[in-house]
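Run folding on both entries below.
>entry_1
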Amino acid sequence: MADTSEARPHGATYLYVVFIASALFVNLTSLVVGGDTLGFDRDMILSVRSLASPWLTELLLAITFTSGRLAVPALILFAAALYRRSGLRTASYYVGACIGTQALNAILTFIVHRARPHGVRPRLTAAGGLAYPSTDAMLADVIF
């Protein structure tokens, strides 16, 4: 009989990826806290701004709206779909991961306390809140 089992990464592979990603995050956070990324951030924002167009601005605003205003309804729908497909345990893990990520992000944002860049883009500064770490980026990692 042919072997129909799929090749799956071992737990050690996942552990290495988590370790490396965590080390990179800690390193980046130490650079942000030390103010070593301010010049790079400003240059990047100005570089991206040079590519601005009305349609791209509208697209990115729609994405921001989706990740902000529709995050909770999407969480509920996805958790319900997971519950129907894989049961309560899988849906609970997903909801727990999302809530845990939100809590971790709130704690890290409070500790790092990095303000949004000023004088680069009025809408960026007007968005309010603190800038690092990004809640959208952290939740995207959990979702994917």
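>entry_2
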Amino acid sequence: LAAEEEAAKVLILLDAVRCPRVERQSDFNRQLQYFNDHLAKGIYAQYCWRYPHSFSAVREWVNRERKEYYLDGPNGADWIFYNEILRQREETIYVDYVENDGAHFWHDPRCTDELGLMPPSSRSPTLQLVSALSKAGCLKPGALHILAKVWRAQVIDERLTIHAIFDLNNKSLESLHAAGLLDTDDSDVINAIANRWLFPLYPLDLRKDRVSKDELRNIQRDWS
């Protein structure tokens, strides 16, 4: 989890590079703030496990994941839960006295054998992607300049599809190769970047979306 958060910082900064400066200055400023935001880092880490077909699908997913509280259960509205990304992070780090839909209990970090049930970090797509970007030389100053030129010309909106992202990733790699800045010809590295570097998230608000528990309780009452 800690390694994925650190890798997410790299992706956050790369999205700042991909963000147009003049047209989207406010988005750029907000993007830099995500570097120290636990929820934003968690969203980036979870994002790499997904394969959305369009930017519209990305927006819908992000808006769900940033809710402070949400309803779930066998019937979809049985209980109120705290944000899943932040809850998982806190459970692996802190001892805490938890309130969950009126119930209170102590929680301590998961023990080592429980953590062993989680996917090995070597299989984490977040770490794999950042490692591939590094091996390809994409994080060097000259390469960042080329990536910025390719990506800032692209409008990121609801019409953008995963196929267009694949084409932009290949264009980025080809541009680096033409400039003599692509540091590898390893097909696994190239494919990881081409297939797993997803839509930029700089147009989206990744900060916690405050939710009133009273409103959720009203939904529960109306449902019941």
